[in-house]
Specification:
With 75 residues, the protein is mostly helical. The chain has a domain of 51 residues. 65% of the residues lie in helices and 0% in strands. Helix 1 runs antiparallel to helix 2. The longest helix has 33 residues.
């Protein structure tokens, strides 16, 4: 098994499938951030923070889309 927590590794992969479920990206991001903090791996910590931010953007976009659909249905 590869060392997922090795320092200095760009393009690091985390062994969690972040493509399933609405909350998985956020959960995986929190796990990456925490693991990065504990291991002193700043790249993994930042990657986790980015994953969480992406999840929030996706959630906001979904909410906006739903609102637009609601408004268009009222006409």
């Amino acid at each position: 098994m590869r060392n997922f927590f090795a320092r200095g590794r760009s393009n690091m992969q985390f062994p969690i499938d972040t493509t399933t479920g609405d909350d998985m990206t956020d959960i995986a991001g929190k796990a990456k951030e925490t693991t990065g903090k504990v291991t002193g791996n700043d790249d993994l910590k930042r990657e986790g923070q980015v994953d969480q931010a992406v999840d929030k953007v996706k959630e906001t976009a979904e909410k906006v889309t739903d609102k637009v659909k609601d408004v268009l249905k009222k006409d």
